[in-house]
């Protein structure tokens, strides 16, 4: 049985501010993968650029750092080449929903069997506090000096509009619940989005640990996870933000739909490099 300690990177110099919500997510993720008994050699973390995107360097496993906004395409490719791997694409709100917004949309349409964890601190942390796609209206920054005027991007509503097969939101201040949501997302067959509220204590003084606690509540058993319209109703709720699994359905995955696996389950990475065979 794996323990969170098994994923520790010896000598890692963690470059996050003391007290940052990213530490909580790092610990939660280690516990989740330990409880699922995932061997580090079977796990791939893929990220882009940002504070959140540093997380693969702090977990002992295979990892790939893409360009800014470019975590999802390599994650999709890695899973397609070796479906035996557990692939988690993990980055910040700017990386996934802003610079990577196009990939976010089309990755969901493909439905690869990967988990997409987004550290949503509603700000660009690494570049020192500019507004991100999920920054709330009136949020003041050194760039948006009179406050953000744009409507915040709603990742859950967009994912549901595209019929993502698993859509969830968590709060880094709630370690137990977040761990269980991440475990279910990893176990889900198909694309799974877990948007995690994460305080940036340095550049977002509005959306704090306290704010997230006071402005969230958990969906209860009355919520029907197979009902897309009900999930959408919950996703557009902003007076208080619901947490938990909004939607969960079974669909064919990208790997299952990829013709190179028709009648041949041998993973691509094990095959002879015959381009003719690949494009048939
Ligand atoms: C194409 C490109 N545009 C902009 C940048 C600069 N940049 C690096 S990280 C970042 C924002 C990261 O924000 P987010 O993804 O929310 O991560 P956080 O640091 O908040 O965890 C930006 C704008 C870049 N590296 N590449
Ligand atoms: S700037 Fe914000 S997101 Fe980045 S490490 Fe510091 S608290 Fe965390
Ligand atoms: Mg951010």
Number of helices: 10
Estimated structural class: alpha/beta
> Which regions are unreliable across 5 or more consecutive residues at pLDDT < 50?
none
From the spread of the alpha carbons, the general shape counts as globular
What does the radius of gyration come to?
Answer: 18 Å
Q: Tell me the strand order in the biggest sheet.
A: 2-1-3-4-6-5-8-7
Name a few traits of the molecule.
about 280 residues; alpha/beta; eight-stranded mixed beta sheet; 10 helices; about 15% strand; globular; binds thiamine diphosphate; binds iron/sulfur cluster; binds magnesium ion
Note down, in words, how this protein is organized.
With 280 residues, the protein is an alpha/beta fold. The chain is 30% helix and 16% strand. It is built from ten helices and eight strands. It has helices spanning 21-35, 72-81, 93-99, 101-110, 155-161, 175-187, 209-214, 228-235, 254-257, 275-279; strands at 43-47, 62-65, 86-92, 115-120, 166-171, 192-197, 216-218, 241-248. An eight-stranded mixed β-sheet has the order 2-1-3-4-6-5-8-7, with helices on both faces. Strand 7, helix 8 (228-235) and strand 8 form a beta-alpha-beta unit. Iron/sulfur cluster is lined by residues 16-17, 20, 22, 51, 121, 125, 200-203.
